[in-house]
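Readers of this paper often ask what the protein records in our data store actually look like. Such a record has a labelled line for the sequence and another for the backbone structure tokens. The tokens are whole numbers drawn from a learned vocabulary of local backbone shapes. We quote a single record here, exactly as it is kept in our systems:
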Amino acid sequence: MYAIVNIAGQQFKVAKDQHLFVHRLQGDEGASIEFDNVLLVEDGGKITVGAPTLKGATVSAKIVSHLKGDKVIVFKKKRRKGYKKKNGHRQYFTKIQISGISL
């Protein structure tokens, strides 16, 4: 059984006991959260598609940890002008574990 769910503006294909890195969510570590923007559910070969979402379908998850991603270097340069800018960025993520999918 799997589902396609909208979490923080992105769509993810999730299954039970799967770990997932999503953009930073509100909540403490160990807290449980539910997502109700379920777009599709597959259960034993039977596919149910929402228009746009399924009514009453939820995906429950548990927040495992909050962390930061790898550093991305942004470097800008204009040749022969002496212009150089170096900047770094680390995205904030939340690691969640899917605990169940219910229709």
Q: What stands out?
A: The first strand starts at residue 2 and ends at 7. Residues 2-102 form one domain.
